[in-house]
């Protein structure tokens, strides 16, 4: 089964995206497999609404393992089952907390093993005073890695929070070689484009 990994810095909306995208793909209940860096696996089953309350949060670093669910991507008259994988946020430098370091290392190996990489940015938090608009090194590194990968795409998330299109244009300028899809993990805007992107790479 093809693997579709969601990556990005903490708090950009990875977990909310996974759950609302699963709902968009008609899942009402999600069976989530939690895979910890030490190999421990837990299986949980939630209603989507319940999962959103429990798993997506205003406090960063809520997700400390890989969270895997299976969903069907529509393909013409049929569909294809894929794994959608939510990961722990990546940050620059070496994190103080050893558990976090291990969770991030786990995310890095998942990047190598995945067929499709959805790289999320929080478009509402770009600032224009610095030349790189406050985008971190790890985001640039991921984008660079993405150049060698056909299934890599940037998702410019939280567009429901921006007053105009400028942040989207600026982000596209920073990553001219990549396809950027504006989305809102909260409202579902842009989900059909994401679904089309995924379908074309299966
Ligand atoms: N307004 C808005 N808030 C969002 C969006 N996506 C995520 N959030 C909020 O951002 C916070 C972090 O989301 P979460 O999914 O936990 O981020 P993660 O750390 O990347 O998994 C939560 O409070 C979400 O409700 C979005 O598209 N629009
Ligand atoms: Mg999360």
UniProtKB/TrEMBL annotation:
InterPro entries attached to this UniProt entry: GTP-bd, P-loop_NTPase
Protein's name in the database: 50S ribosome-binding GTPase
GO function term, MF aspect, one: GTP binding
Organism per entry: Geosporobacter subterraneus DSM 17957
Spans traversing the lipid bilayer: none
Residues in G domain copies: 57-158
């Amino acid at each position: 089964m093809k693997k579709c990994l969601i990556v990005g810095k903490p708090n950009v909306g990875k977990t909310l995206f996974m759950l609302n995208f699963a709902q968009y793909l008609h899942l009402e209940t999600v069976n989530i497999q939690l895979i910890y860096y030490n190999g421990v696996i837990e299986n949980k089953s939630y209603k989507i609404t319940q999962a959103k309350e429990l798993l997506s949060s205003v406090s960063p670093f809520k997700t400390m393992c890989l969270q895997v669910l299976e969903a069907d991507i529509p393909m013409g008259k049929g569909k294809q089952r894929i794994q959608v994988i939510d990961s722990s946020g990546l940050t620059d430098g070496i994190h103080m907390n050893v558990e976090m370091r291990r969770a991030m290392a786990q995310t890095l190996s998942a990047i190598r093993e995945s067929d499709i990489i959805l790289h999320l940015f929080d478009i509402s938090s770009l600032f224009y005073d610095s030349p790189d608009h406050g985008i971190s090194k790890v985001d640039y590194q991921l984008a660079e890695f993405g150049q060698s990968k056909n299934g890599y795409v940037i998702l410019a998330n939280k567009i429901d929070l921006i007053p105009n299109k400028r942040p989207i244009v600026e982000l596209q300028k920073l990553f001219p070689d990549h396809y950027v899809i504006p989305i809102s993990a909260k409202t579902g805007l842009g989900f059909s484009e994401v679904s089309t992107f995924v379908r074309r790479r299966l």
